[in-house]
Amino acid sequence: MGRKEKIARSLVTAITKTTQTAKRPRSLLALILSLFSAFFSLYQLTLRKIRPAEFSRLRREHWEVNDDDYTQSFQPDDDEDEEKPLKAIGDMGFSGSVSNLMFNYTFYTTRDHKYLVKSVPRHSEHSFFRDNLLTPYVHHMAHHPNSLLVRICDFLAVTGPSIGRLFRLAPSHHIVMENIMYGKEDSSKWNKNDWQNWDLKPTSYFYPERDIANGALTSDATKDQLADKFKDKIVLRRSQADDLLVMLEEDTKLLAEHNAVDYSLFLVRIKRPGSTSSESQDLTAVPVDPPSAPPGPPTWRTGIPSADGKYLFRASILDFFWAKHKAQPQAMTMLISLWNLLISRQGHMSITTTPDEYRERFLKMCREIVEVKED
Fold first, then answer.
1. CA distance 18 to 49
2. Is 326 strand, coil or helix?
3. Residue 115 belongs to what H/E stretch?
4. pLDDT tens by residue, 247-268
5. Which Gene Ontology BP terms does the record give (predicted)?
6. Strand, coil or helix: what is 120?
7. Least confident of 30-39, 59-68, 98-107, 345-354
8. DSSP string, 162-187
């Protein structure tokens, strides 16, 4: 069993084990062997849920996700014994930030494609979410059903010492989140090429990979991981555009108040073949059983029909774990300040600017990609 498979097994165990199973009494010998095995584990680390009751309450009371249905997504298919409950995937366009290029992240999708598991291995990021953002995030998501912040269903952390943790052979923290691309794999009406996605953030910041020596010092593959550009427009009715911008303002206000920067807007565009009427409300691209439903479709999580009748659009705010007050961001800010002072005046990077300034540019970017078709 390889590294990815062992990491996946530890994730599935942490998500699916019950409280009764976790508290089941064991003999002293079994306990010693378990601790010994955990310490010498390289990849299959022992994980626990952080504040599981609050995430369970969000799922059940606000997103109408039954606990049994949720854990079932992480179980093998009974009809296909060989199918793994988690599948390692690429970044799917997520996490195009400069900060994320500095670390080896892992991504998994459940076999039913409803959820993604993403590692959060850097201390500055997982400690920020745990200690600073988790409580306001839970409160915000409970009181803003239309929020565009990605719905995080669980937060997992390694427990106890191990060789794999010491040498960072496997990620120490993970989040389980809804898959905004859910429905693509099972779509039978359209070719998969009719699904497009962009990981958007303000591109006017200083990106060393792109801006030093005109990008000649880095590979095209590295530069391709930077933020995307959406060169088209989202054509919306006035009411749709107003609702979108209000939600973006509310969500980014929360992030700015807690010093978060470098988050991105993940945009999905689904072509609607044969539909040209702006009055058409055909939502057959929307799954009948999305991972977390309320409010019911059409929403930006399930698919908003464009005013010109050509597309469904989905959108979600991702990667809001980079906080300016943490040690690593402060060190990066100091380095960029020295660069601007001593070498070349390039301005701030998206990970070293102020939260309010980043929010202003982010909202400006979002407004610029929206075209309003009056009701």
1. 11
2. coil
3. strand 115-119
4. 999 999 999 999 999 999 999 9
5. phosphatidylinositol phosphate biosynthetic process
6. coil
7. 98-107
8. -HHHHTTSS-SEEEEEE-TTTTTTT-
Q: Answer yes or no: do 288 and 266 share one domain.
A: yes
| Residue 327, number of CB atoms within 10 A of its CB | 10
Per-residue model confidence as pLDDT tens digits over 73-101: 998 876 554 558 899 986 444 444 444 43
Tokens matching residue 4: 């990815």
Range of the domain at 353: 192-373
How far does CA 257 lie from the centroid of its chain? 20
Q: 219 and 119 in one domain?
A: no
Residue 266 host element (H or E): strand 264-271
Whether residue 206 sits in one domain with residue 117 = no
Cα(356)–Cα(346) distance, integer angstroms: 19
Mean pLDDT of 104-130: 91
How would you label 134-150 residue by residue, b for 16+ Cβ within 10 Å and e otherwise? beebbebbeeeeebbbb
**Domains identified in the chain, total number:** 2
Q: At 310, is the secondary structure helix, strand, or coil?
A: coil
Mean per-residue pLDDT over the chain, rounded? 82
Measure the CA–CA gap between 272 and 282, rounded to whole angstroms. Answer: 9
Q: Is 320 within a domain? A: yes
> Tokens 């195009």 sit at which residue?
96
